[in-house]
């Protein structure tokens, strides 16, 4: 069953009930952090650093599927984004405040750790910035289907994911060994390709009313979005986000058909993303200091950011919002995986990937002991 939480014209977040009756939010994970934790641990156990069932060659063969999963995740974020009312504007300001606060605190803590820990070498700005970006993701969602509870947190979370994807695209473009103008042109090309694919899929879907044919066109669009980003060594999250926003602006009925078909794939793709992320993570003591700093200062940054938001931007939002920010979101893992796919030889990308995945596992464990609020503004 699908319900939409929120007022008319506001951000819409898809909420589903599984067979067990637990609600799941738009990115396919349960409101309770357990399933996300289990999938990451499963990947760690099956990967080459565990039982070895998922070998390096198997993981390499899954790279095209991962690009599609990342593109689908971007599409889901784009389909759920809307800024149309003053309340949405305040949610956007709150999202910016949360992202900036968390990024600044985590990045600064990583730099300090590097100066005080001889075994940690940052080699520039990229690692602190990337860890700050990934730390700013949270699994925020409505607390009940069909009512207004939790919608402030849902809007903040969705718009926060939008900001993180845009910032990660800029960071990824900066890793290209080209002049800034050439990198900006490459980003513009990827944006035009994404819009062209979205337009083509929209036109094809409008030409048929058969659900099967519409699903084929939607799946084909995801394949093209992920493939184009992988070919350019850029962000599949970004191309998917642009396509999702385009389809949302286009409106029904074609956009509704595409959204239905993309959400049909969301659960298996998110499962694949988390299992592969866990499998590709080496268990290394060399990053233990960074992992500890990431966990502690991510929590500090999210709590301080939530406190600032509740005191300044959205005053009616209770402090319960803070406890919703502990569990890490799938977007943070997706961002660092996207960067690693585009730059497999970049040491900072490999280090950030290990830190974010291991940090997410421990943050999920933290979230298990934090009580979930019953209501939110």
Q: How are the strands of the largest sheet arranged?
A: 1-2-3
Tell me the Rg in angstroms: 19 Å
Judged by helices, strands and strand pairing, the structural class is mainly alpha
Count of domain modules: 1
Biggest beta-sheet profile:
3 strands, antiparallel
Describe it.
- The protein has 377 residues and is mostly helical.
- The chain has one domain: Na+/H+ antiporter like fold (Up-down Bundle).
- 67% of the residues lie in helices and 3% in strands.
- The chain has 13 helices and 3 strands, in the order E-E-E-H-H-H-H-H-H-H-H-H-H-H-H-H.
- The chain has helices spanning 34-46, 56-61, 63-79, 86-116, 126-135, 151-174, 180-206, 211-232, 236-250, 254-279, 288-313, 330-342, 347-368; strands at residues 2-5, 13-17, 23-24.
- A 3-stranded antiparallel β-sheet has the order 1-2-3.
- A hairpin with a 7-residue loop joins strand 1 (2-5) and strand 2 (13-17).
- Helix 3 packs across helix 8 (211-232).
- The protein is globular and about 60 Å long.
- The two termini are 24 Å apart.
Quick structural gist:
The chain has 377 residues and is mostly helical. 67% of the residues lie in helices and 3% in strands.
SSE blueprint and pairings:
Elements: E1 2-5, E2 13-17, E3 23-24, H1 34-46, H2 56-61, H3 63-79, H4 86-116, H5 126-135, H6 151-174, H7 180-206, H8 211-232, H9 236-250, H10 254-279, H11 288-313, H12 330-342, H13 347-368
Antiparallel strand pairs: 1-2, 2-3
Helix pairs in contact: 1-10, 1-13, 3-8, 3-9, 3-10, 3-12, 4-5, 4-6, 4-11, 5-6, 5-12, 5-13, 6-7, 6-12, 7-8, 7-9, 7-10, 8-9, 8-10, 9-10, 10-12, 11-13, 12-13
């Amino acid at each position: 069953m699908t319900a939409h939480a929120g007022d008319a014209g506001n951000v819409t977040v898809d909420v589903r009930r599984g067979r067990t009756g637990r609600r799941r939010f738009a990115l396919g994970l349960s409101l309770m952090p357990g399933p996300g934790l289990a999938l990451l641990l499963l990947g760690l156990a099956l990967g080459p650093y565990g039982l070895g069932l998922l070998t390096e060659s198997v993981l390499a063969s899954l790279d095209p599927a991962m690009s599609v999963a990342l593109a689908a995740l971007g599409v889901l974020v784009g389909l759920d984004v809307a800024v149309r009312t003053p309340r949405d504007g305040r949610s956007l300001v709150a999202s910016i405040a949360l992202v900036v606060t968390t990024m600044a605190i985590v990045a600064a803590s990583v730099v300090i750790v590097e100066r005080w820990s001889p075994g940690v070498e940052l080699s520039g700005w990229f690692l602190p910035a990337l860890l700050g970006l990934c730390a700013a993701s949270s699994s925020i969602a409505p607390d009940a289907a069909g009512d207004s509870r939790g919608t402030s947190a849902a809007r903040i979370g969705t718009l926060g994911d939008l900001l993180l994807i845009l910032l990660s695209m800029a960071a990824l473009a900066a890793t290209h060994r080209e002049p800034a103008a050439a990198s900006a042109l490459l980003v513009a090309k990827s944006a035009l390709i994404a819009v062209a694919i979205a337009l083509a899929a929209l036109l094809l879907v409008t030409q048929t009313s058969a659900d099967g044919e519409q699903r084929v066109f939607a799946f084909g669009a995801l394949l093209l979005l992920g493939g184009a980003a992988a070919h350019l060594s850029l962000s599949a999250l970004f191309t998917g986000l642009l396509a999702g926003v385009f389809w949302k602006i286009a409106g029904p009925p074609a956009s509704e058909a595409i959204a239905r078909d993309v959400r049909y794939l969301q659960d298996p793709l998110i499962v694949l993303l988390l299992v592969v992320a866990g499998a590709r993570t080496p268990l290394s003591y060399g990053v233990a200091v960074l992992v500890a700093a990431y966990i502690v200062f991510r929590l500090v940054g999210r709590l301080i950011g939530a406190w600032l938001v509740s005191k300044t931007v959205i005053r009616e939002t209770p402090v319960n919002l803070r406890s919703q920010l502990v569990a890490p979101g799938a977007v943070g893992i997706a961002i660092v995986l996207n960067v690693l796919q585009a730059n497999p030889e970049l040491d900072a990308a490999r280090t950030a990937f290990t830190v974010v995945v291991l940090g997410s596992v421990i943050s999920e464990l933290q979230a298990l002991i934090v009580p979930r609020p019953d209501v939110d503004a």
